[in-house]
Design brief:
Elements (H helix, E strand, L loop, with lengths): L1 H24 L3 H17 L4 H10 L3 H12 L4 H11 L2 H13 L4 H10 L2 H13 L7 H27 L9 H11 L6 H16 L8 H26 L1
Length: about 240
């Protein structure tokens, strides 16, 4: 008689973790939904068909990389450069994966694949405090599923609405400025350490200086320079702290 009781307790725990994950993600949607709307509009402005813009939000499911893809596509950049640039932009997901792997390694493969697909910036930000500071319950992965699924659903809906809005906006209207504004809005709240500020400033300076590079390679140059500068600044801060 204990097995049904244990199953019921596990189901209740999974439900509670999922709901908690949804609640943790909801405040972050204030920034996600407008971003999805902007991508839907920009995708059409870049010349992508509506079905491709919507499908990309399901297949790629990465806001910054989708916007970069749309921008490069509109500039008729060669596919190889687009692929390399999107890959560089998405490198941070490998860091997220490495961070949560220790909490998910005992899950079946189907769960790990699903959670890897749902692991984005906002889902990670909402879930990692639960993993690092909460109890190690067998159902804690449902918390990440709750954050990821909430973000995924809102991203799909906002993209569709953005496509519908974009279809009603005259093609003569230039919306490129909104890309920079969106990324600045996403970047500034995440700068908490000096090394992060150094990375942002160096990447911005290189992006401006390298505008003359063909095929918008300034994006890759700025990303590489920012990462290198941030890492160097971080090592310097640790060395100074160790000496003190």
């Amino acid at each position: 008689m204990t097995a049904p009781a244990e199953f019921g307790a596990h189901e209740a725990s999974a439900r509670a973790e999922f709901v908690a994950g949804v609640k943790a993600e909801l405040p972050l949607l204030l920034g996600v939904v407008p971003f999805g709307l902007i991508f839907g509009v920009l995708g059409l402005a870049a010349g992508l068909p509506a079905w491709a813009v919507i499908a990309m939000s399901s297949v790629v499911f990465g806001g910054s990389s989708q916007v970069v893809f749309a921008q490069l596509w509109g500039a008729q950049v060669p596919p190889a450069v687009i692929t390399a640039t999107v890959g560089v932009v998405n490198l941070r997901h490998a860091l997220y994966s490495a961070s949560v792997a220790q909490y998910l390694r005992d899950l079946p493969l189907r769960w790990r694949v699903l959670l890897a697909y749902l692991l984005t910036d906002e889902a990670y930000a909402a879930a990692i405090p639960r993993f690092a500071q909460g109890p190690a319950t067998p159902a804690r992965h449902w918390f990440l599923f709750g954050t990821g699924f909430t973000l995924w659903a809102s991203w799909q809906v906002s993209t569709v609405v953005g496509v519908l809005m974009g279809a009603a906006i005259p093609a003569a209207w230039s919306l490129d400025f909104s890309i920079a504004l969106t990324f600045i809005a996403l970047l500034l709240p995440g700068i908490r350490r000096r090394s992060e500020l150094v990375a942002a400033l160096v990447a911005g300076a290189v992006a401006l200086a390298a505008q003359g590079l063909p095929h918008k390679l300034w994006i890759i140059a700025a990303a590489v320079a920012g990462i290198a500068a941030g890492a160097a600044s971080r090592r310097l801060d640790k060395a100074v702290h160790h000496e003190q």
